[in-house]
Amino acid sequence: MDRVTAPNQVSPVPPADLPTTLGELRAAGHRYRTVKQELRDNLLARMGSGEDRFPGIVGYQDTVLPEVERALLAGHDMVLLGERGQGKTRLIRSLGALLDEWTPVIPGSVLNEHPMHPITPASRALADSTGDDLPIGWLHRSMRYGEKLATPDTSVGDLIGDVDPIRLAQGRTLGDPETIHFGLVPRTNRGVFAVNELPDLAERIQVALLNVLEERDIQVRGYQLRLPLDLLLVASANPEDYTNRGRIITPLKDRFGAEIRTHYPLDPDLELALIRQEADLVAVVPEHVLEVLARFARDVRESPSVDPRSGVSARFAIAAAETVAAAALRRSGLLAGAGAGAGASGSGAGSASRPEAPVARIGDTVSVTSTLRGKVEFESGEEGREIEVLAHLLRTATAETFRARLAGLDLSGFTALVAEGGAVETGELVSSAELLRQVGTVPGLAKVLDRLGLGDAPSPEEAAAGIEFVLEGLHLTRRLGKDVTDSGRTVYGDRD
Predict the structure, then answer these.
(1) 334: nearest Cα among 459, 464, 463, 427
(2) How do residues 328-363 score in pLDDT, each as one tens digit?
(3) Is 288 exposed, middle or buried (0-12, 13-18, 19+ CB in 10 A)?
(4) What's the mean pLDDT in 418-429?
């Protein structure tokens, strides 16, 4: 009987000193363990060494991760339940790092069978005929993770398997297990398999997973298969009362050993750490601007104008930071173009000035209210007011950050800038040099920049970012007036 063979896959090259036959494997002291035993042993080893068990996971150290660890130690399959953008998929994918780096397999086995524990008739026959001379291969842990995004068109064949008509046409009988084309779940045997958005699977498809979770075998059409699958099954789901796209059927939910509820970052520092880790910034975004965005995301989540069932994804704050950085880069590019044009016209002003480095300012955050409104589900009564609501929450977040960062400082030097009819102009296309020229020497500026984490020797762009933040904070706390001109410039002046 021909054995089922695996498709060609690109796998990391194993070290040359690993055993190549079953006899060598036994002589090396290798012992067979199930996937769940392997995960348990490796998790305990990382606990003992103090190594990070889930690198890259932010905000779950004291809440979600202990529950995940208890589920792994208990050998439970699990479902992660939470709103969008809470890092469920990332957490699931991190589980693969707890597997052994290399594991022995029977070469060509589509089910990644262990040479000490073959499960298909063909592999058992091969092992019996070759004994200790059975050749073995090595599979890297990166190849032992499988994932399927549940979609309404997902079939039982996709997940479990189906009859392969080509093999039938080759002359095999319908009862021959070699005529089965195995689906994603059995192909991840001896690994971790994830189903994302499990409720989106049609209920009749969910039924196909019942045996996998309980009896640990599969059924394909009329075949009598007793293949003891060895895997950890993990699923993710949004709260059913929000998605309305389906539900996890009760018998399937009962078969998961653990249901773990995820959440958004519980405090601004964790939100800020997540932004720093995930955002791909094309310009410098000072810490105080990132803090404003972190508070903004939290304020949006807690706003009564926003549908609490939908949540506000962590991707909202990340995209906001990337948008603000892009606004700073745009200003730098436009100012460079304006400077080149001024130089070409013979004025000499642009050619003599230094290029504007891309550093984000608080004024750049205004751009996120329009570009990111599609990421937020508003209550029905707020239709048409989405940008207005977001703009109000952004101002609130800016004022909160201003108070948190600069409380107790003497800012009278800044209010004096606009005394007796004076004004300071800033805006999207106002260069740092122009802003600094307007304010000159400001008493207390060094302390402000220190509080904002801009250091003892900030660049002109960083100093301009700090100054603009103070001016906006003083306006929001009703100590300065503010007007926006037809050309888009922002003018700070006396409130009177």
Answers:
(1) 427
(2) 999 999 998 776 665 555 444 444 467 899 999 999
(3) buried
(4) 87
What residues form DSSP beta bridges with 21?
Answer: 135
* Among the listed residues 39, 29, 114, the one whose alpha carbon sits nearest the alpha carbon of residue 75: 39
* Residue boundaries of the structural domains of the chain: 32-99+144-260, 268-493
CA atoms within 13 A on the CB side of 291: 15
78-81/258-261 β-pairing: parallel
75 is written with which tokens?
A: 């050998």
Q: Answer whether 435's CB lies under 8 Å from 490's CB.
A: no
pLDDT at residue 455 in the model: 78
Q: Determine the Cα–Cα distance for residues 226 and 479; give it in Å rounded to an integer.
A: 76
How much helix, strand and coil, in percent to the nearest 5, is found in the chain? 50, 10, 40
429-447 burial: b if 16+ Cβ within 10 Å, else e: ebbbebbbebbeebeebee
Token code pair at residue 384: 């048409």
Q: What is the DSSP letter of 2?
A: P
**Amino acid letter, 95:** L
**Could you give the CA distance from residue 467 to residue 432 in angstroms, rounded to a whole number?**
10
| Residue 36 CB-density burial (10 A; 0-12 exposed, 13-18 middle, 19+ buried) | middle
Question: Structure tokens of 13?
Answer: 């090259």
Q: What is the pLDDT of residues 119-175, one digit of tens each?
A: 888 899 999 999 999 999 999 999 999 999 998 889 888 998 887 766 655 666 655
Model pLDDT for residues 31-45, shown as the tens digit of each residue: 999 999 999 999 999
Could you give the count of Cα atoms lying within 13 Å of 246 in the half-sphere of its Cβ? 17
Q: Give the whole-angstrom CA distance, residue 350 versus residue 343.
A: 5
pTM attached to this predicted model: 0.85
Q: Can you state the angle between helices 64-74 and 35-49, rounded to 10 degrees?
A: 130
CATH architecture of 32-99+144-260: 3-Layer(aba) Sandwich (3.40)
Partners of 79 in the β-ladder: 235, 259
For residues 245 and 105, give the distance between their C-alpha atoms in angstroms, rounded to a whole number. 40
